[in-house]
Amino acid sequence: MLTIDLNADLGEHPGANLDEQIMPYISSCNIACGGHIGDETSVRQTVRLAIKQGVAIGAHPSYPDRSNFGRKIMLIQPHDLAESIKEQIGLVKRICGEEGTALHHVKPHGALYNQAASDTIISKLIFEVIKEVAPNVYWMGLANSKSEKIAKANKHPFIAEGFADRKYEPDGSLRSRSLDDAVLSPGQVMKQVEELAINHRVKSEDWIELHIQSICLHGDTKGAVTLAKEINQHLDSKGVQIASV
Q1: What is the pLDDT of residues 201-226, one digit of tens each?
Q2: With b meaning 16 or more CB within 10 Å and e meaning fewer, what string describes 230-240?
Q3: Backbone torsions φ then ψ of 92, nearest 5 degrees
Q4: Kind of pairing between the strands at 201-203 and 207-209
Q5: Rounded distance, CA 186 to CA 192, Å?
Q6: 74: Cβ–Cβ under 8 A, 6 or more apart, which residues?
Q7: Confidence at residue 221, expressed as pLDDT on a 0 to 100 scale
Q8: How many CB atoms lie within 10 A of CB 118?
Q9: Cβ(106)–Cβ(139) under 8 Å?
Q10: What is the C-alpha separation between 226 and 228, in angstroms, rounded?
Q11: C-alpha angle 242/159/23, rounded to 5°?
Q12: DSSP one-letter string for the chain
């Protein structure tokens, strides 16, 4: 049987029960940890939900830029960026330990994720931080990216990720959210997850070969709970088992 991880970015909507509703349909989650949003209370709450549902836990660090939700590249000294990422990962790792579980992976957020995908220097910085703070956890990042190349060059475990709800550019990067068609409709999502999970490809102008281990559903996509349920059921109907790496 084919197996794929289905992940979602959570801990981003304090006070809402969105995370609790999405959690039953995914196999891993990436928890906002103070850079773009989140604090000790929200991280602990999301960690506990993940433990209850048997969902693998990841830290979701970003540029320390709450005003832009971590979605713009921030002009910051490399040392300061590294320290911020260390602090963010450290928060989730510590809370996992206090709650009797272990941190499974690290997945950068927003602009930091996209920049690392194309920028060797940022990818190396993230790798060095992970190696220092949580050397035994997976690094999750965009398939066929600089991040994947840096991880493989250093023999670090990497989870190659594809996206359920985002349009791809011909070079394999994600279309900017500033463009109207960056986020797919529900019908397009079902087609894309099937192609990613079964046929190892995604459609841009032409087909792009992508060998992934995880598919991301954004928790802030409109109708995310329904979409998570439908993706889960659709993949199951195609004989694809959803499980963490």
Answers
A1: 999 999 999 999 999 987 766 688 99
A2: bbbebbeeeeb
A3: -65, -40
A4: antiparallel
A5: 10
A6: 63, 64, 65, 68, 81, 111
A7: 66
A8: 15
A9: yes
A10: 5
A11: 40
A12: -EEEEEEEEES-STT-SHHHHHGGG-SEEEEE-SSSS--HHHHHHHHHHHHHHT-EEEEE---S-GGGTT-S-----HHHHHHHHHHHHHHHHHHHHHTT----EE---HHHHHHHHH-HHHHHHHHHHHHHH-TTSEEEEETTSHHHHHHHHTT--EEEEEESSBPBPTTSPBPPTTSTTSB--HHHHHHHHHIIIII-EEESSSEEE---SEEEEETTSTTHHHHHHHHHHHHHHTTEEE---
Average pLDDT over residues 76-95: 98
The residue written with tokens 């703070």 in the block is: 133
How many Cα neighbours within 13 Å face the side chain of 129? 27
Distance, first Cα to last Cα, the chain:
14
Structure tokens at 67: 């005003």
pTM of the model: 0.95
Task: List, in order of start, the domains of the chain with CATH numbers.
Answer: 2-242 (3.20.20.370)
Q: What are the two backbone dihedrals, phi and then psi, of residue 4, each rounded to the nearest 5 degrees?
A: -140, 145
79 pLDDT above the threshold of 80:
yes
